C-alpha cells in the first residue's frame, strides 16, 4: 500500500482537457501579464466569496503584506496573530516592519482564542489577523466585535479556507480584507504560485491593485512605491477551471472527513472539533495525540504519508529569535507542535483509502 498525503498530479489528470484548453487559450492570446484572464478570475472569485472585489496577486504571503500596507500598517505598529499558524502569517507582519503579537489558540478548535485578544491590545495595535487554520473558520463575530470596540481593522488569513463558511456565510468578506493563497496544495490550487485578496471596500481593493503593479494603474504613472505581485494569467486561467469544481471537491473532502470522524471515534485520538456555526473547508484533517511521533512512524511503515502542521511554531523559529519569546510563553502552540498529525485528505483520495488509513491507525 502506498497512500500519498496529497496527489496533485491526479487532480490535474481529472481536469486535464479543461486545463489544457485554458492553458492554450492564454498561450494563443499573446497576453501574458494581467489582462482579461486575470480580470475574469477576479470577477468570478469575488462572486464566489460574496465579496465586492477581488485582486489577483502573485502569492498568499504578498496578499497578507499588501493587505497590511493598504491599511498603512508599518514600523511601530502591532498586529495580533495566532501563535498556532503557518509562519507566513507572522512574516507578513514583519515584512511591513510591524510587530506580530501572538495569541494562543482555543484548545478545542486550535484557532485563535478570541477570549485572549482584548488583553493583548495596546495603543500600538492596528490590526487583528485571525487565520482560518486547517480550513476551520475562526470565530469571527467576537473578533469583529473587539475590532469595532477598539477601532482596529481585521485582516483574515484565508489561505486554507476556500469555500469554508462561518454561520452560513462563506469566508471572503467578514473582515476588512481577506487574504488568499492558491499555492498548488491549497483547496483551490494553481499550477504554481498565486494569491488574491477579497474585500467589500472599494478603496482598499484599489490600493492593493495599485501596490501589486509598481504603484501604478496607468503605465509609467506611479502613485506610490509598489511592488510586482501580479497574478499570472496562466494561473488565473487554471484557477477559473478549478473554481468550477471547488464546491464538488470540497464535498469530497467533507465526506472523507466524516468517514475519518466516524472511523476514529473510539481510537483515543483527539479529533477535529467543529463548532455548530462552522462549515469547514477541510483543507487538513488534523488529529492530536501525545503518541504522535510513534504513530506517524507506524503509518509511514504501512506506506501512508502524513504531515505535521506545524512542527515548529513561529516563536520557536530562528527567524524570530530576536523577539526573545521563551518557548513556554506560548505553551499551547508548543504542545500542538509536538502532538498534531495531519492525515491524508484531498479530492482525489478515495473513501476506501480512508478506511485503509483508519485500519492502520487502529493497528498501530
Ligand atoms: C499557504 C499559506 C500562506 C502563504 O501562502 P503562499 O501562497 O505560499 O505565499 C499564508 N498563510 C497560511 C495559513 C497558509 O497556509
User: What percentage of residues falls in helices of 4 or more residues?
Assistant: 25-40%
Secondary structure: number of strands:
12
Question: Which of globular, elongated, flat, extended, rod-shaped describes the shape?
Answer: globular
Tell me the strand order in the biggest sheet. 1-9-8-5-4-2-3
Instruction: Report the bound ligands by name, code or SMILES.
Output: pyridoxal-5'-phosphate
Largest sheet: 7 strands, mixed
Number of helices: 12
The chain-level structural class is alpha/beta
What pattern of helices and strands is seen along the backbone? HHHEHEHEEHEEEEEHHHEEHHEH
Give structural notes.
The chain contains twelve helices and twelve strands. The protein has helices at 8-14, 16-29, 36-48, 60-70, 88-95, 140-150, 202-211, 233-243, 246-263, 292-301, 331-339, 351-363; strands at 53-57, 78-82, 99-103, 125-128, 153-157, 165-166, 169-170, 177-181, 195-199, 278-279, 285-288, 340-343. Strands 1-9-8-5-4-2-3 form a seven-stranded mixed beta sheet, with helices on both faces. Strand 6 (165-166) and strand 7 (169-170) form a beta hairpin. The longest helix is centred in the C-terminal third of the chain and has 18 residues, at 246-263. The chain is globular. InterPro entries: DegT/StrS_aminotransferase, PyrdxlP-dep_Trfase, PyrdxlP-dep_Trfase_major, PyrdxlP-dep_Trfase_small. The modification N6-(pyridoxal phosphate)lysine is found at residue 186. This is UDP-4-amino-4-deoxy-L-arabinose--oxoglutarate aminotransferase ArnB.
Amino acid at each position: 500500500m502506498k497512500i500519498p498525503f496529497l496527489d496533485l498530479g491526479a487532480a490535474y489528470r481529472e481536469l486535464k482537457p479543461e486545463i489544457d484548453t485554458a492553458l492554450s487559450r492564454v498561450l494563443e492570446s499573446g497576453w501574458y501579464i494581467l489582462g482579461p484572464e486575470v480580470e475574469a478570475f477576479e470577477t468570478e472569485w469575488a462572486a464566489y466569496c460574496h465579496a465586492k472585489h477581488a485582486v489577483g496577486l502573485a502569492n498568499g504571503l504578498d496578499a497578507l503584506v499588501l493587505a497590511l500596507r493598504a491599511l498603512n500598517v508599518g514600523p511601530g505598529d502591532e498586529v495580533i496573530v495566532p501563535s498556532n499558524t503557518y509562519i507566513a502569517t507572522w512574516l507578513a507582519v514583519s515584512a511591513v516592519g510591524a510587530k506580530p503579537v501572538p495569541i494562543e489558540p482555543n484548545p478545542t478548535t486550535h484557532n485563535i482564542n478570541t477570549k485572549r485578544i482584548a488583553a493583548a491590545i495596546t495603543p500600538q495595535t492596528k490590526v487583528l489577523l485571525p487565520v482560518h487554520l486547517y480550513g476551520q473558520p475562526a470565530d469571527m463575530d467576537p473578533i469583529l466585535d473587539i475590532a469595532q470596540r477598539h477601532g482596529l481593522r481585521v485582516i483574515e488569513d484565508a489561505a486554507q479556507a476556500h469555500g469554508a463558511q462561518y454561520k452560513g456565510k462563506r469566508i471572503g468578506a467578514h473582515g476588512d480584507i481577506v487574504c488568499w493563497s492558491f499555492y498548488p496544495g491549497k483547496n483551490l490550487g494553481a499550477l504554481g504560485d498565486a494569491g488574491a485578496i477579497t474585500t467589500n471596500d472599494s478603496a482598499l481593493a484599489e490600493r492593493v491593485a495599485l501596490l501589486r503593479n509598481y504603484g501604478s494603474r496607468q503605465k509609467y504613472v506611479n502613485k506610490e512605491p509598489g511592488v510586482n505581485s501580479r497574478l499570472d494569467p496562466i494561473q488565473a486561467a487554471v484557477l477559473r477551471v478549478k473554481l468550477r469544481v471547488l464546491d464538488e471537491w470540497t464535498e469530497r473532502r467533507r465526506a472523507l472527513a466524516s468517514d475519518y470522524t466516524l472511523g476514529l471515534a473510539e481510537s483515543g485520538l483527539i479529533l477535529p472539533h467543529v463548532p455548530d456555526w462552522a462549515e469547514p473547508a477541510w483543507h487538513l484533517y488534523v488529529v492530536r495525540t501525545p503518541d504522535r511521533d510513534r504513530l506517524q512512524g507506524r503509518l509511514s511503515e504501512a506506506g501512508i504519508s502524513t504531515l505535521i502542521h506545524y512542527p515548529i511554531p513561529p516563536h520557536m523559529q530562528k527567524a524570530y529569535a530576536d523577539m526573545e519569546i521563551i518557548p513556554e510563553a506560548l505553551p499551547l502552540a508548543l504542545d500542538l507542535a509536538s502532538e498534531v498529525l495531519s492525515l491524508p485528505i484531498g479530492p482525489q483520495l478515495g473513501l476506501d483509502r480512508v478506511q485503509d488509513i483508519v485500519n492502520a491507525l487502529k493497528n498501530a
